[in-house]
Design brief:
This protein is 40% helix and 16% strand. It is of the alpha/beta class. It has one domain: Rossmann fold, CATH 3.40.50.1820. The chain has an eight-stranded mixed sheet, sandwiched between helices. Strand 5, helix 4 and strand 6 form a beta-alpha-beta unit.
């Protein structure tokens, strides 16, 4: 892994594949380090002929954090939005989109396929709309337009966005991480318990930073919806979404596809809000088949 200065911050990143191959930028979701992209997916995309880049979003992992901004009151922010008031945040999704472009600049990459999951999908939507010359194609994975009135996730999944471990120990954090991934996971593709634990341990030990997740959540709330923005996207677009996503229901993905002119969508029964081992070959195939020639 390496680090560069971009867009006024430091960004931790990692690459796989040949630099001469088409670039493919992976953008992760809320509070999720770049290592949440499974290694098998990361290296599988590279093996398929892409120069793959994954990175820690600001306020996550080993990239610059915004601890000086304090921990936001998410409930108060939601109340302000519900009452039609504006919400201020230390940074917004547009700033995170600018981070992605800044990273490409720092790496000397002119254009890339933009692949984003969940909040990462929101970020690449902004990139595709505002930086079409830098975007070969966009793949939005289990994400949303943020349109008010869309179906909401299951209560137990939504509750995990702000839930905390029962205690301060490493084991408490690991148990919490396992619970999170179980709640939002794929009912049709269960991850073996030993694999799940090893995956969570790796990410807990790399960095545990819920304060950053809260500020990212605030940025999502404060940034509003992308309904009108999505209508302006002209780059080739693919939407992938699980039909059993408990956090962002499949209707959210269908809404994104309906808004982006000429987009394609594929939905998968049994897939939730994660990348279980059983879905990874399919995800690699769909992304690479779509990006080929774009």
């Amino acid at each position: 892994m390496a680090r560069v200065k971009a867009n006024g911050i430091e960004i931790e990143y990692e690459t796989a594949g040949n630099k001469g191959d088409p670039a493919l930028l992976l953008v992760m979701g809320l509070g999720a380090q770049m290592t949440i992209w499974p290694d098998t997916l990361f290296h599988g995309l590279a093996a398929a002929g892409y120069h793959v880049i994954r990175f820690d979003n600001r306020d996550t992992g080993l990239s610059t954090d915004f601890g000086a901004a304090g921990v936001p009151d998410i409930a108060a922010a939601v109340s302000r939005v519900m009452s039609g008031q504006k919400v201020e945040a230390p940074y917004y999704l547009k700033d995170m989109a600018a981070d992605a472009i800044g990273l490409l600049d720092a790496l000397g990459i002119e254009r890339a396929h933009m692949v984003g999951a969940s909040m990462g999908g929101m970020i690449v939507q902004i990139v595709a709309a505002q930086h079409p010359a830098r975007t070969r194609s966009m793949v939005s994975i289990y994400s949303t337009s943020g349109r008010p009135g869309l179906p909401i996730g299951k209560p137990e999944a939504l509750a995990m966005l702000s839930a905390q471990p029962e205690g301060p120990t490493r084991e408490d954090k690991i148990k919490h991480g396992i619970k999170l991934r179980t709640v939002i996971g794929s009912p049709g593709y269960p991850t073996p318990p030993a694999d799940m634990r090893a995956f969570v341990e790796k990410n807990v030990d790399r960095r545990w930073y819920p304060e950053g997740s809260a500020r990212q959540y605030l940025s999502v709330i404060a940034s509003g919806d992308r309904v009108e923005l999505l209508k302006t996207i002209k780059v080739p677009t693919l939407v992938l979404h699980g039909e059993d996503d408990p956090l962002l229901p499949v209707a959210c993905g269908r809404d994104v596809a309906a808004l982006v002119p000429g987009s394609k969508i594929e939905t998968f029964p049994g897939w939730g809000h994660d990348f279980p081992p059983g879905m990874i070959p399919t995800v690699i195939d769909r992304i690479t088949s779509f990006c080929r020639g774009k």
